[in-house]
């Protein structure tokens, strides 16, 4: 099997869970979860690529914005399950893996992390095995980040399309979204940093939302507006220095920003610094 980018996606280190909301990052409340198939807003199949030129918020089924979203630490907190998956791989192989450390380095391709623990000739086989273990260990513990469902819905309510572009193994990304009741119009996996521009361009996305400097680089490579949320490993200052156009404290701020962006057909970049 060919090497794929990380099954983990951009993320930060393990955060202490607040007593009132176990397992949530930074003390933020978590929206409840519902199951359901991946796809459109009603669980239907995803649509084809579309989008308007010149950075305007067009291209959805009713001429609304096409917006790309990263997955890990942008829409979901996948750290608890990734931690469990590394522990399972360690137990199965007998090779010590510091799962606490590994989840502080999420973002680059999975094979890069596994190279810290396995000899080079075993890395690809271990990556394949990790991806096989992932559905059993990593889906159930994942959490919805605050405002994630509402952000995706805000795009669709404007007649636009929400497209998830992630470094994660695509089948596992779809399992996460279905389990947590997040229904984008398309899901594209196995793309990291500048490579995300391929999918963003194909779907006509003129906005890309992410938590990592790699997401900022992907947006810039696609000539899309970079909207950054410091809910992962990268602080607001780091995201700003990387070239983010807009910084929001989290996705709860996104619907209001999107309405402003859409109200003038995207001619203004609506810079914001709410972090």
Largest sheet descriptor: 6 strands, parallel
The helical percent reads 25-40%
Count of β-strands? 8
Secondary-structure content class: alpha/beta
The Cα radius of gyration reads: 18 Å
Q: Which stretches are poorly predicted, pLDDT < 50 over at least 5 residues? A: 8-58
Q: In which order are the strands of the major sheet placed? A: 5-4-1-6-7-8
Overall mean confidence score, pLDDT: 81
Shape: elongated
Strand content: 5-15%
Quick recap:
The protein is of the alpha/beta class and 275 residues long.
Secondary structure elements and pairings:
Elements: E1 66-69, E2 76-77, H1 79-93, H2 99-102, H3 110-114, H4 120-138, E3 143-144, H5 148-157, E4 161-165, H6 170-180, E5 186-188, H7 196-202, E6 207-210, H8 213-221, E7 225-228, H9 236-242, E8 246-247, H10 254-263
Parallel strand pairs: 1-4, 1-6, 4-5, 6-7, 7-8
Antiparallel strand pairs: 2-3
Helix pairs in contact: 1-4, 5-10
Write structural notes for this entry.
The chain has 275 residues and is of the alpha/beta class. It is built from 10 helices and 8 strands. The protein has helices at 79-93, 99-102, 110-114, 120-138, 148-157, 170-180, 196-202, 213-221, 236-242, 254-263, and strands spanning 66-69, 76-77, 143-144, 161-165, 186-188, 207-210, 225-228, 246-247. The strands form 2 sheets. A 6-stranded parallel sheet has the order 5-4-1-6-7-8, sandwiched between helices. A two-stranded antiparallel sheet has the order 2-3. Strand 6, helix 8 (213-221) and strand 7 form a beta-alpha-beta unit. Helix 1 crosses helix 4 (120-138) and helix 5 runs parallel beside helix 10 (254-263). The longest helix has 19 residues, at 120-138. The radius of gyration is 18 Å and the shape is elongated. The chain starts with 65 loop residues before the first strand and ends in a 12-residue tail after the last helix. Mean pLDDT is 81; it is low at 8-58.
């Amino acid at each position: 099997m060919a090497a794929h980018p990380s099954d983990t996606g951009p993320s930060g280190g393990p955060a202490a869970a607040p007593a009132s909301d176990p397992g949530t990052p930074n003390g933020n409340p978590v929206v409840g979860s519902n199951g359901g198939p991946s796809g459109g807003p009603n669980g239907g199949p995803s649509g084809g690529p579309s989008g308007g030129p010149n950075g305007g918020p067009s291209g959805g089924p009713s001429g609304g914005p096409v917006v790309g979203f990263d997955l890990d630490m942008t829409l979901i907190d996948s750290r608890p399950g990734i931690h469990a998956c590394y522990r399972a791989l360690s137990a199965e192989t007998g090779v010590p893996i510091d799962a606490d450390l590994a989840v502080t380095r999420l973002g680059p391709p999975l094979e890069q992390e596994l190279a810290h623990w396995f000899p080079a000739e075993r890395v690809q086989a271990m990556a394949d095995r990790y991806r096989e273990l992932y559905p059993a260990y990593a889906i159930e513990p994942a959490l919805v980040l605050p405002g994630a469902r509402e952000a995706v819905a805000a795009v669709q309510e404007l007649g636009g399309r929400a497209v998830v572009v992630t470094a994660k193994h695509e089948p596992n990304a779809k399992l996460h979204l279905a389990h947590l009741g997040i229904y984008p119009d398309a899901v594209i996996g196995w793309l990291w940093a500048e490579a995300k521009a391929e999918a963003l361009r194909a779907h006509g996305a003129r906005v890309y939302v992410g938590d990592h400097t790699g997401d900022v680089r992907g947006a810039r490579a696609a000539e899309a507006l970079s909207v950054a949320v410091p809910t992962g490993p990268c602080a607001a200052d780091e995201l700003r220095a990387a070239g983010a156009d807009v910084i929001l404290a989290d996705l709860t701020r996104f619907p209001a920003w999107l309405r402003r962006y859409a109200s003038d057909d995207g001619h203004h970049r609506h810079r914001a610094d709410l972090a």
